[in-house]
Amino acid sequence: MSDDEADPELLALLRQSLGLGGPAEDAPPDTKVLQGAEYVYNNAIDVAIDWQHTRAAAAIILDLMQKKQFSTKSWSQHELHPQIKDEDALNFIFTMDLLNFSFWSENDSSSRFAIEYNGKTWTGYWSLVAALRRALDDGIPITDSHFWQNEAEFTEDVLRHVFRSSTDECIPLIEERLSNLREAGQILYEKYDCRFANCVKAAGGSAAGLVNLIADDFDCFRDETRFEGKKIRILKRAQILVADIWACFEGDDFGLFNDIDKITMFADLGASGINLLIRFVGQSIA
User: Residue 8 pLDDT > 70, yes or no?
Assistant: First the structure.
């Protein structure tokens, strides 16, 4: 190489250090969720993080987790979550998180969408889990991707039956839920031999890698937006799915991940409610 020729390896390192190039080929997977949040934080005008209140919130959360001895074991302690840790449990979790959205209701607690199961009434997220458990008890293979692809057997009416309510209110967005299951069944058929377990294995033990695979392959898990010209990844439900797998299997078997710490807090509706009390995010006056 002559003196007037640039060293390509040096140029690559310089571009990478300046954020001008892609990650190194052997770099560990990254969801880019934190980087997007940092970009919004650095460029937002109307909202800002209050670090004093954020630290207070973190201290409160840690204290409560310690007092309640919260751990991965807490996930399986709920009566509706799978108790046997096998591939059926993995399929249940995948189905559950494919449908884990929009339980909002303007009705009061006595008339909102609810599921009767095992002598109890379940609402919100738990109505979803109870409906899936009830369907399996009734012999409906609702967690089977082969079933999702069978348009003759798995119809919208069947899904409405699965989510039949004990009140007059139906579950919201039933068409979108059916579409999610159809799409997922097709992707599993095309890429993963009809087994979600193969998708988990393809991530090679990386939680961030699995989040990326799920978001890249399944449109319904790819929640992204743009802010000031930059793509911002949120990936709420993709991260919830990976966290549920990790918690169910207690960091072993299908839940054995070498980078579970890369999973971030989920942008849940509850966070805005907590913010009203703790004020860790401030906003300008309109």
Answer: no
pTM score, whole prediction:
0.86
6-10, 121-125, 279-283: which is most confident: 121-125
Q: Which amino acid is at 81?
A: H
Burial letters 10-48, b for 16+ CB under 10 A, else e: eeeeeeeeeeeeeeeeeeebbbbbeebbebeeeeeeeee
What is the mean predicted confidence (pLDDT) over 29-51? 90
Distance CA 241, CA 129 (A): 14
The residues with which 49 forms a beta bridge, in sequence order, are 281
Which letter does DSSP use for residue 136 in this model?
Answer: H
Write out the two tokens for 94.
Answer: 């995948």
Handedness of CA 17, 21, 23, 26 (dihedral sign): negative
Catalytic residue among 193, 219, 252, 268: 268
209-237 mean pLDDT: 95
Taking the C-alpha atoms of residue 245 and residue 15, their distance in angstroms, rounded to an integer, is 37
Q: Rounded to the nearest 5°, which phi and psi values hold at 29? A: -60, 150
Number of CB atoms found within 10 A of residue 189's CB: 15
Q: What is the pLDDT of residues 159-208, one digit of tens each?
A: 999 999 999 999 999 999 999 999 999 999 999 999 999 999 999 999 99
Query: What six digits make up the tokens of 86?
Result: 């096998």
Tell me whether residue 108 is one of the annotated catalytic residues. no
How many other β-carbons are positioned within 10 Å of the β-carbon of residue 246? 21
H-type alpha helices, the chain: 8-17, 33-43, 51-67, 73-77, 87-98, 125-137, 145-149, 156-162, 174-191, 196-202, 207-217, 236-248, 269-278
CA distance 144 to 123: 24
